[in-house]
Design brief:
The protein has 304 residues and is mainly α. It has one domain. Helices cover 73% and strands 1% of the residues. It is built from 13 helices and 2 strands. The longest helix is centred in the C-terminal third of the chain and has 27 residues. It is found in: Cell membrane. It is a multi-pass membrane protein. Its main location: membrane. It holds the Pfam family EamA.
């Protein structure tokens, strides 16, 4: 039986709703930052909560059948590092731009498959590269025809780097890890915690620092919500669904994060979102669809 035949209704809903939830991740994250004012250090507490929440689950599942090579373990931890970069990027850059840059992952994954793994590149995958690059060109240009369309701040650059690292880590996890979802996410969160500490040291805290009268109740509530709901619960559920939903279908489902992030930031964030940026976002979504279709078209058909 092929993997897509195992996708029951629950796995499909999880694969749809978790990326959509992450499209709204910037809202509680920026709410927390507004009360803490700690910049990259805000992520340390959030991910520490996630690690503590995942520890008992991972411990209970420690004897569950599964395996991972050293490459698989490092790839899983690197995935957590990629998500940390993405998380911090949302504090320093434009929400829509960071999300679109992160979702350049089909382009990087195709290039890794071609030049690192020697895979054959289909026409659909070349189309995905072209659409992805064109989409990012429009998003970065933002309606301004002057100058090169390059990331304009450290948040944009971290968003771009997070997508590249996620492509590398997801390739490694796919090829070298078959761990239980809870154990995998615990390692993922450990990698995120180490990266959060490193970014905190490198970037430091903003000059504004902690507000004069911090609302500790709001800080605790936001930290618990992000650490448990987003990092611990939703990512574990998503890793569970990955083993049950066809990869091509999963790739399309994950585009709900781009759509939800673009819509929510356009409505709620005081950031410019032009028609050209909206068109670029659509092209990046199409690039993900082309990559997903290429994966499905390239899979051998079952006999009979």
């Amino acid at each position: 039986m092929q993997s897509h035949d195992r996708a029951g209704p629950l796995a499909i809903w999880v694969a749809l709703l978790v990326p959509a939830l992450w499209g709204l991740y910037w809202i509680p994250l920026r709410y927390l930052e507004a009360h803490v004012g700690a910049g990259a250090w805000s992520n340390v507490g959030v991910v520490l909560i996630a690690c503590l929440a995942m520890l008992p689950m991972a411990w209970r599942r420690r004897r569950t059948p599964g395996h991972a090579s050293r490459t698989g373990l490092w790839s899983t931890a690197l995935g957590g590092g990629a998500f940390t970069l993405y998380s911090v990027a949302l504090l320093y850059g434009s929400v829509a731009t960071v999300i679109v840059l992160f979702y350049m992952t089909p382009v990087w994954s195709i290039l890794i498959a071609r030049f690192r793994l020697g895979a054959t590149i289909s026409r659909w995958r070349y189309a995905a590269i072209g659409l992805g690059l064109a989409g990012v060109f429009l998003v970065l240009n933002g309606g301004n025809a002057s100058g090169l369309p390059l990331p304009s701040n450290i948040g944009d650059w971290m968003g771009l780097l997070s997508g590249i690292l996620w492509s590398i880590s997801s390739t490694g996890m796919n090829r070298h890890s078959r761990l239980d979802a809870a154990i995998s996410n615990f390692i993922f969160c450990l990698g995120a915690l180490l990266t959060s500490l490193l970014l905190g040291v490198v970037l430091g805290a903003p000059d504004s620092g902690l507000p004069t009268e911090p609302d500790y109740g709001a800080i605790l509530l936001a930290s618990l919500a992000i650490g448990i709901l987003w990092w611990a619960f939703s990512l574990t559920a998503f890793m569970w669904s990955v083993t049950r939903v066809d990869p091509a279908r999963l790739g399309i489902f994950m585009m709900t994060e781009v759509i939800m992030g673009a819509i929510s930031s356009a409505l709620l964030a005081a950031e410019p979102y032009t028609l050209m940026m909206a068109l670029g976002t659509g092209l990046v979504v199409l690039a993900g669809g082309c990559e997903a279709y290429s994966s499905r078209a390239g899979r051998p058909r079952p006999a009979g």
